[in-house]
Amino acid sequence: MEGTGAVAQSELIADLETPSGKRKDDENFPVGSWLIRRELRPHVHAFYRFAREADDIADNPGLAAEDKVRRLARMGAILDGASGDDSPSALAMRQSLKETGITAQHCHDVLRAFTMDATKLRYRDWDDLMGYCRYSATPVGRQVLDLHGESRDTWTWSDPLCDALQVLNHLQDCAEDYRALDRVYLPERDLAACGSKVADLAGRSTTPGLRRVIDRLLDGTDALIDKARTLPRAVQSTGLRRETAVIVTLAERLARRLRQGDPLAMRVKLTRGDFAASLLWGLWRGRRWGQG
């Protein structure tokens, strides 16, 4: 029996995390870039890796829902001090929190979102979707702001930005999420109101009804981005002000591309030109707002 237990523990250590291979360089938006303070970048990267590994568990089509929930709970336990090294990202995050004194709540919030992903496949309306984003998206901005010692008043504008980025990502991946995971973030009430249905996501191009749903969600996203434009002005850290200005600009550009593109026909994404222009425009905005 003792030998069997050792084998089981060994399998747990090897298999708890199921990395997809996606890296921070593959994201739409900068993650702990050179714009922010050098000593804080490793902590931003630790949070990204923790969230990335949890996301990969939730998105793994080869795992049953109950297995995903168990693995995510185990990551939370290790984060809180449980022994074991079967989740390297949780161990690294625990060390980061110890060094910085940042609350673990943001980490637990994203684990809650990914647990929802394992068990919740449909959303009723915009408010239901925003309830999900409260745990999947806003903790990311809050973590970075806390690391910089920014006032929590900045959450007022960071939260809408993070929510907008999340919805934009949902729209980019709407077909893939449905086909691979039967997960649909497009709200059911919007689908019905626009004369569309979930099965439309299996097509090779958007139907007129599905196009109306996407545009309706982009209307909501544009309103979030409009609120988020205040964030760089409110941030005290020079580097973070510039990074947030770049991110706001990238969000604006991706929203426009999704207005023009068909996410069922191909993945609508930012180009190198978008990144270059957003960097220059964001740096100029950040500098101007810092002088205001």
How would you sum up this structure, described in words?
The protein has about 290 residues and is an all-alpha fold. It has two domains: about 35-110, no CATH class; about 120-290, Farnesyl Diphosphate Synthase. About 65% of the residues lie in helices and about 0% in strands. Helix 7 crosses helix 8 and helix 8 runs parallel beside helix 13 (about 240-260). The longest helix has 23 residues, at about 240-260. It is globular, with a radius of gyration of 20 Å. The relative contact order is 0.10. Residues about 1-15 have low confidence and may be disordered.
Tag the structure with descriptive keywords.
292 residues, mainly alpha, Farnesyl Diphosphate Synthase, globular
Measure the end-to-end span.
Answer: 69 Å
Tell me the number of structural domains.
2
Q: Which superfamily, in CATH terms, is the homologous superfamily of the largest domain?
A: Farnesyl Diphosphate Synthase
Low-pLDDT parts are 1-13
Summarize the structure.
By secondary structure, the protein is mainly alpha-helical. The protein folds into two domains: 35-110, no CATH class; 120-292, Farnesyl Diphosphate Synthase, CATH 1.10.600.10.
